[in-house]
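This part of the workshop introduces the protein records we will be handling. An example says more than a description, so a record of this kind follows.
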Amino acid sequence: MLRSITSSARRLVPQNLILASFTTLALSASTQKETNSLLFTPQALSPNIDHSPSSIQLENPVNYYKSSQSQRKTSVSLLPFSGSSELYESLASCYRDSGSLNDAKEFHLQILKYGFDEDLFLCNTLIGFYVRAGDLGSARKLFAEMPERNSVSWACLISGYTQNGMSNEACRLFRHMVCAGILPNHYAFGSTLRACQDLESCGLEFGMQIHGLISKSRYVSDVVVCNVLISMYGNCLKSTHYARLVFDEIQIKTSISWNSIISVYSRRGDAASAFDLFSRMQREGVGFSLKPTEYTFGSLITAACSSCDLGLCLLEQMLPRITKSGFLLDLYVGSALVSGFARFGLVDYAGKIFEKMSQRNAVSMNGLMIGLVRQKCGEEAAEVFTEMRNLVDINPDSYVILLSAFAEFSVLEQGRRKGREIHGYVIRNGLSDSVVAIGNGLINMYAKCGAISDARSVFRFMPNKDSVSWNTMISGLDQNECFEDAVTTFCSMRRNGLIPSNFTLISTLSSCASLGCKPLGKQIHVEGVKLGLDLDVSVSNALLALYAAIGCLTECQKVFSLMPDHDQVSWNSMVGAFADLEGSVPEAVTYFLDMMRAGWRLNRITFINILAAVSSLSLSKLGCQIHALAIKYHVVADSAIENALLACYGKCGEMEQCEKIFSRMSERRDEISWNSMISGYIHNELLPNAMNLVWFMMQRGHRLDGFTFSTVLSACASIATLERGMEVHVCAIRACLESDVVVGSALVDMYSKCGRIDYASRFFSLMPIRNVYSWNSMISGYARHGHGDKALNLFTHMKLDDQLPDHITFVGVLSACSHVGLVNEGFKHFNSMSKVYNLVPRIEHYSCMVDLLGRAGELDKMESFINNMPMKPNVLIWRTVLGACCHANGQKTDLGRKAADMLFDFEPQNAVNYVLLANMYACGGKWEHVAEARMALRKAGVKKEAGSSWVTMKDGIHVFVAGDKSHPDKDLIYDKLKELNRKMRDAGYVPQTRYALYDLEQENKEELLSYHSEKLAVAFVLTRNSGLPIRIMKNLRVCGDCHDAFKYISKIVDRQIILRDSNRFHHFEDGKCSCGDYW
């Protein structure tokens, strides 16, 4: 297997690689950085080189040199004077373990004094001495002045360079050694390979060349060299393949060999392979006494921490073994265990191990603090720092972790205050300017504590900024909803010449998504493509979130298809993107199924997204299947999943399932749970159940939020239950939510839909804060009640108040114009949408314009307007056209017939379409066509909705249909109706029989009109003693005869009558209607 590696190395070098040709090897200057070109450029050995000192211990190659005494040309007998062997041995051993520079210089003087300056062994020893003392300059000078050098001389200096972080110099010196014809020993090979490892990818090619040389030397099976090769390949390559091949070729593996390969897999996060190797180590090392060391356990702990699913289990299994081996008290192993258990949330375990450690340092303290911070235990982390600050040597990382702990305080204000204290301390000690990481930590702390202005100040005054500084600032601005500033900071970063990282793009794309800025998002997308960052899965996920937020699902699909790898977030993003957009929900289900087929594990986000999609489709069977999957994946007890199930089943009409889930939730219920149940009841028209649940919430002491009140108020508005709506209003006052803008807007909407436009107007004027929904509710309310002038006047005030209108605003404005016949005004506002407010009219706005022209009798203009629409008319527009033709007294029946045919294609089972066609022909007296339309209705197998009216009294809701005689007070009702008919005729009322849409005699038509449901309802109310306004609701449009009759009745009984039909409100008072007979 080793041949497969060396053959790969040979592909990088000439095939006839021998020692002489190795000296000519060099990397092309065009492919290497300037600093790396030094590796292969011969330079004169100059003693005048500035080197950085280091305290890292150098392995002394003297023992190897002594074993090679046969290679020495100088024997002891050639010492400067006889009898000095004891002095020689004394010099060789006296300073052997010292690392003092003064001792090194003393040793050097002794060598010179006694004439040993040309002795190879002592000179090599002195080089090692200087290296240990960190004086690489003296070591290099001595090396250059040596009259004779051997492989140990070169190995000493190469090793010194490597251990002092001068990897380029180490590799350059190794090349000079080979050029000089010196065969490197295993120390030289090992040290140079370590240097290549430190250079990572830049040193890989040179390392493979050295491997090729090793394969031709006697060190091909040397365990020390092989161990270093394992580490080099493991560190420089993403794959573990080459490192594993080298390991497998080692004949006799030492504990270092096992530790090296386990470390490689550990760094790759391959816990399974790391622990498999550990098991092999124990099995194969029985006869060789291969016991795990602290380095073995340290690597295994790191591997366990990289496994999200089995990591904690592995740590718990390792703990007894570590304890038995006696390494629990070891600083290295103990610190790793503290960090590992803390990472998985077992802070108590980590704390106990931390307390048992006989020796602790900043690393172990930092590990415990990180775990506490991840568990949102900021106060406890700060307490650990306070207790340990005088017991260990605090490093900059400790301050960074401490600053992150303040952002996790339960009360952020306290965290911010503590953070400012640490800020002052690091300024006094000069740490804030000298250590960039601390400045970055301050920015992060202030941003997460909500003090974004303080974060800006720290960032602005930092003398040195790195990419982390910019990333932290951009991320902080994004988190504090300063989206424009985040994008601006990103642009500044680019102008300063810094290359953005994946973290930079993720935060900036998040801000673009929040701004809904598609052009800017695409520019950053292009920037990511240029830098190759679009291949990063997290960046691609951010792009998916951006395009999903702005509704560009096609771009989402393109990004997803081009991703080289997908993760769980990628799939969840696609499911969520399509689930949120109406009309694309089936695609969400498709992506969900594809995710399962691809073998990905479903998590809580997946279930929440797919349940939202199923809710939109109202597919109860699919919802049950998803529910079963949630049980299978053991996530059904999660409150977020349960809330999603409540919403899903509620929209699918399965309230029994909702009640079962809700009853099992018990203590897990939150505001969303209660609101989902209330919304479910309301969606399924079970308002009494919803109201009972609201009262139950209040009795249990649950605080109702704005969403709860707005939901219930919307339900009250939908069925015009004024009394219940007023009860909810009282509850909102008690909950101190009356001033909430959401609740206030819902109250305005409720009162206007329940007929109390005066209450709505009064409440709107008292609102301390108004948003676009508040204005829209009031404008629509005025339009619904026929107060077109007030609606348009309010729209003018809205613009003066600097509140930009939206699409819903213009629906209300155009409806107001339609209800009062302001055709020209309506077209002016319609055109202003695109020209002034940059709003593209939607289908509902075109529908309003069709209605406006139809009510005004401009049928020709209406037909022309439809033909010139940029989109195809929908059901609502064709039904509006057919309704307009109904009121045209037989005109344009051809247009009405066309509209009816379109409606039959769209909705063949909707009885309203057949009724409208029949009514159109009836208004024109075309009874044969009326019969044909009614026959078509019967053939379609559908039933028309019966006209009904209802009134709400103290004893309940009373419902009436035309000619109804089922009411207990029917005799009183019909007597009162006869009395009213007589008084109306005396006042000049004449029944308008053209609204009796049947081919009957005149008398029969009059009788039919006199028993319409709304007349029965008003007669019933008048049988009761009251002077309050009469409020009647009707499910269909009020007919012209009843409209005329109500004007007479309001004057006769001297009471206000408020009638809400399917289109609008009519306020009858003193013989007049608020609509001005234009409806």
